[in-house]
């Protein structure tokens, strides 16, 4: 989900490709008004990229723009501007960062101006703030807003009536609106072709994420993971570019597994894997490299993370399915991590700790996001109790640099890793009959 | 010559630096504490030097006991000896202070009246030092800076007025000079020198004590290993392998003091830690204040400053309250405003203070809950554990929230982190020996 943090290391082909894809996409967006192409602003969890692309509508993802602004050191000013406009310190910093960017000329991460939306497609998955966010954008732009209401998985499962509810909205609200703004009729065959390509890329993505079950893990499934999910979570799911990106990435990871290599970090290749951890919660974007380094310096590899499931959970077997196009889009939306109830999240995390043979479980609790943070302490206790492995807790924010206190976070992380050491040592002693 | 091996733990906190010296059998030989300062190496050296002096003083006592000298007389004799020893230390530092004041005065080319004032103040302080170290004398602090500072400033006002020297200039000189004294590891002197003087000072004939002092002076104290912890640990002059997180150290230290402990709360100068440990003192989970340091020890420091009180006077004053003012914010930055606002509303000082203490402990309660609650046996550590009112509030809130619990507070609780570090040093050494064997 980010394209410029790894600058000092040799880039793999897949990385180069991803960079090219992103650059091309933003240049298409910049040309869209002149070329008369419609674009829709929409969100990552529960995005309908294939459907948009099947109408040749270009997606713009404000969350991604916000996190890119965070990584590029722009978020402080953007947030400051939004606060000057009256948005309080407590408002989600993605929202404020996006608004600040908009008010500063809406220049995207590649330096080109983003087009105004022809549609605000509010696929409303697991986050109430999305609603307010687009309400504000609705005041800025003269364009329709379509709300796709995605029912929460309160009982931990998707029922037929829930599925039907979403499909009906797609058929009766979303599709007619897309036909109107694009001037093109709904083409289900085209959508099916795209969904087939999505499934293909998803297979390769799952291979990549699950490669972390190897020891040493060839990837970091959190800090590295956010790059791997980039294309499939954003504008590229269902494109041939994405198919090729994931094929290439998979081949690269297969090679690393074969050679027994660890992950590549900002400091180069990790020599020794000392700790394997599962991480819950989004990363901090303003100090992304510094945060990552706090792990890699200690020899800590993240082997699985929930954040890499916010734009779709695929490792439980779900795939986009061309034989039931709208139904599988509905299932996709409802299956995103942010739409899962707390017991399902706990189950998933416990499974990760066990399946990936992690030494522990760590939460990065971000100030901005109540959808993520509410219940995290309960999750921490539950995962600890069920796995018997130690939990850790750090706090930061998404893109507000004021809430990243490096010395505190480092102190906690060091303490946490030393705690794992101490437990291991004790385990060895009792193993020796001490 | 007898050789005594020891292991050291240093806790470099935001306010004070603590050292604990352990013997092979895990007994504490000595403890030392000093103000933390910008030069961490010096802070460590001073705290360790103090701990070693205390170790030797304790050795004198045990030597006497081993030879069958015990009882009230011996205790009194030892107490007098120690006071004389402390006085010698004080006088040595005072002499260094005088030198530094003169040097600073010369450098700054101050008026003659200032020179004369310094020339009068220091000898008078030296003269008074005996009274400061008589049995039963109350000293506001054990730190030279505080002890000498309060007397110097009082005399500066008095003598300065007499001689026509500016108080501000005299106070400014002190601020500069005291830094030099604190940053000198020499100023405090050696055990040897002060020990002999203290013996002379006792007067009369004490052959058994003299023999014990000689025996202890002949002991060769040999440091085997040291482990550092605390906020400044990254800057300690230790190899990385010998640095431990203060969370682990507090857990292990508290467990060593009270083996039944399963929950530890540490409220230090700038952080609050809630720690759960297992039956071996190994940390199983912890929570720390992160985005905000409201309600930590430093907050009490600000309040004390605002009220023109010593930190140690806050608890007793709050204890006099018959009711508590309800206070929600424990923001350190707003502490002064909060206090003045309450005073202007006509609330009593002790009642405001009682409310403040409760508010601090309430914040700690939230961290405790997050870390997994309060188990059957609970230990409270850190500088704030010395505050009687904070302790009272903690008892009340724990009982209200968790029911009856065993709550341990060691008089040496400020050394918990350093003790844990010293235990790590010892464990590490045993591990290496084990591996070699």
Write a structural description.
The complex is a heterodimer of chains A (434) and B (437). In chain A, 51% of the residues lie in helices and 11% in strands. Chain A has 434 residues and is α/β, with parallel strands linked by helices. Chain A has a domain at 13-187. Chain A has a 4-stranded parallel sheet with strand order 2-1-3-4, with helices on both faces. Chain A has a 4-stranded parallel sheet with strand order 8-7-9-10, sandwiched between helices. Chain A has a two-stranded antiparallel ribbon with strand order 5-6. With 437 residues, chain B is of the alpha/beta class. Chain B folds into 2 domains: 1-258, no CATH class; 259-409, 2-Layer Sandwich (Nucleotidyltransferase, domain 5), CATH 3.30.420.40. Chain B is 56% helix and 14% strand. Chain B has a 5-stranded mixed sheet with strand order 7-6-5-8-9. A 4-stranded mixed sheet of chain B has the order 3-2-1-4. In chain B, helix 12 packs across helix 13 (388-402).
Key structural traits:
heterodimer, A: alpha/beta, 4-stranded parallel sheet, 10 strands, disordered N terminus, B: 437 residues, alpha/beta, Nucleotidyltransferase, domain 5, 2 domains, 5-stranded mixed sheet, 14 helices, 56% helix, globular
SSE series of chain B: EEEHHHHHHHEHEEEHHHHEHEH
Radius of gyration of CA atoms of chain B, rounded to a whole number:
23 Å
Kindly report how far apart the N and C termini of chain A lie.
48 Å
Shape of chain B: globular
Task: Kindly report the oligomeric state of this protein.
Answer: heterodimer
Please describe the biggest sheet of chain A, giving its number of strands, its sense, and whether it closes into a barrel. Answer: 4 strands, parallel
How many structural units, i.e. domains of chain B?
Answer: 2
Structural class, from secondary structure content of chain B? alpha/beta
Q: How helix-rich are the residues of chain B, as a percent range?
A: 55-70%
Q: Please, what is the average pLDDT of chain A?
A: 93
Count of DSSP H/I helices of chain A: 17
Tell me the strand percentage band of chain A. 5-15%
On the 0 to 100 scale, the average pLDDT of chain B is 89
Helix-strand sequence of chain A: HEHEHHHEHEHHHHHEEEHEHHEHHEH
The coarse overall form of chain A would be globular
Can you summarize the main beta sheet of chain B?
Answer: 5 strands, mixed
């Amino acid at each position: 989900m980010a394209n410029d943090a790894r600058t000092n290391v040799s880039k793999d082909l897949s990385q180069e490709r991803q960079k090219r894809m992103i650059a091309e996409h933003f240049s298409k967006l910049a040309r869209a008004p002149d070329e008369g192409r419609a674009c829709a602003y929409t969100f990552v969890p529960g995005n309908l990229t294939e459907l948009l692309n099947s109408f040749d509508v270009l997606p713009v993802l404000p969350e991604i723009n916000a996190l890119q602004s965070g990584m590029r050191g722009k978020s402080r000013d953007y947030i400051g501007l939004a606060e000057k406009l009256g948005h309080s310190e407590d408002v989600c910093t993605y929202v404020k960062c996006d608004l600040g960017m908009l008010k500063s000329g809406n220049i995207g991460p590649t330096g080109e101006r983003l087009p105004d939306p022809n549609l605000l497609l509010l696929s409303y998955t697991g986050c109430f703030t999305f609603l307010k966010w687009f309400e504000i954008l609705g005041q800025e732009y003269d364009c329709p807003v379509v709300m796709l209401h995605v029912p929460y998985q309160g009982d931990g499962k998707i029922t037929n009536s829930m599925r039907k509810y979403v499909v009906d909205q797609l058929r009766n609200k979303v599709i007619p609106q897309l036909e109107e703004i694009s001037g093109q009729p709904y083409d289900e065959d085209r959508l099916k072709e795209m969904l087939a390509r999505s499934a293909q890329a998803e297979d390769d993505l799952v291979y990549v994420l699950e490669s972390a079950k190897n020891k040493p893990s060839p990837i970091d499934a959190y800090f590295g993971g956010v790059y791997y999910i980039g294309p499939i979570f954003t504008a590229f799911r269902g494109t041939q570019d994405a198919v090729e990106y994931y094929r290439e990435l998979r081949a690269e990871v297969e090679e690393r597994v074969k050679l027994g290599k660890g992950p590549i970090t900002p400091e180069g290749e990790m020599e020794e894997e000392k700790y394997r951890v599962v991480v819950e919660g989004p990363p901090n974007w303003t100090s992304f490299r510094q945060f990552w380094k706090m792990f890699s310096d200690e020899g800590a590899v993240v082997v699985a993370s929930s954040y890499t499931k916010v734009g779709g959970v695929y490792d439980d077997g779900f795939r986009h399915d061309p034989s039931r196009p709208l139904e599988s889009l509905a299932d996709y939306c409802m299956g995103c991590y942010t739409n899962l109830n707390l017991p399902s999240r706990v189950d998933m995390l416990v499974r990760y700790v066990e399946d990936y043979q992690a030494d522990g479980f760590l939460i990065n609790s971000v100030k901005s996001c109540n959808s993520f943070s509410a219940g995290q302490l309960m999750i921490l206790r539950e995962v600890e109790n069920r796995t018997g492995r130690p939990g850790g807790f750090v706090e930061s924010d998404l893109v507000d640099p004021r809430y990243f206190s490096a010395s505190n976070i480092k102190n906690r992380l060091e303490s946490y890793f030393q705690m794992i050491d101490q437990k291991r040592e004790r385990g060895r002693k009792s193993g020796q009959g001490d | 010559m007898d050789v005594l091996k020891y292991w050291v733990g240093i806790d470099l906190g935001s306010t004070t630096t603590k050292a604990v010296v352990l013997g092979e059998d895990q007994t504490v030989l000595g403890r030392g504490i000093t103000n933390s300062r910008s030069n961490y190496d010096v802070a460590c050296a001073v705290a360790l030097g103090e701990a070693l002096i205390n170790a030797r003083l304790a050795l004198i006592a045990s030597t006497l006991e081993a030879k069958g000298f015990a009882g009230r007389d011996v205790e009194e004799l030892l107490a007098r000896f120690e006071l004389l020893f402390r006085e010698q230390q004080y006088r040595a530092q005072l002499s260094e202070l005088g030198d530094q004041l003169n040097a600073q005065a010369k450098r700054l080319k101050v008026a003659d009246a200032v020179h004369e004032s310094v020339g009068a103040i220091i000898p008078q302080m030296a003269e008074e030092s005996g009274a400061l170290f008589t049995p039963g004398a109350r000293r506001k602090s054990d730190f030279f800076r505080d002890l000498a500072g309060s007397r110097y400033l009082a005399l500066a006002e008095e003598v300065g007025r007499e001689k026509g020297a500016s108080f501000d200039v005299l106070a400014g000189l002190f601020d500069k000079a005291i830094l030099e004294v604190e940053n000198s590891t020499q100023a405090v002197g050696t055990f040897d020198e002060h020990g002999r003087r203290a013996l002379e000072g006792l007067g009369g004939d004490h052959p058994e004590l003299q023999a014990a002092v000689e025996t202890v002076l002949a002991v060769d104290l040999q440091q085997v290993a040291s482990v550092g912890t605390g906020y400044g640990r990254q800057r300690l002059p230790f190899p990385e392998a010998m640095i431990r997180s203060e969370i682990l150290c507090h857990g292990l230290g508290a467990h060593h003091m009270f083996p039944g402990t399963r929950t530890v709360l540490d409220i230090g100068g700038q952080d609050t830690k809630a720690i759960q440990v297992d039956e071996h003192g190994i940390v199983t989970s912890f929570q720390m204040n992160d985005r905000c340091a409201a309600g930590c020890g430093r907050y009490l420091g600000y309040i004390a400053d605002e009220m023109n009180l010593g930190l140690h006077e806050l608890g007793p004053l709050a204890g006099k309250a018959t009711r508590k003012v309800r206070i929600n914010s424990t923001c350190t930055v707003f502490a002064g405003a909060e206090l003045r606002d309450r005073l202007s509303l006509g609330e009593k000082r002790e009642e405001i203070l009682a409310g403040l203490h409760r508010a601090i402990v309430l914040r700690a309660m939230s961290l405790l809950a997050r870390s997994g609650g309060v188990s059957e046996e609970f230990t409270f550590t850190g500088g704030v554990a010395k505050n009687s009112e904070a302790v009272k509030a903690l008892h009340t809130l724990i009982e209200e929230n968790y029911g009856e619990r065993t709550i341990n507070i060691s008089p040496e609780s400020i050394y918990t982190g350093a003790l844990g570090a010293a235990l790590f040093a010892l464990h590490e050494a045993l591990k290496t020996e084990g591996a070699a064997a």
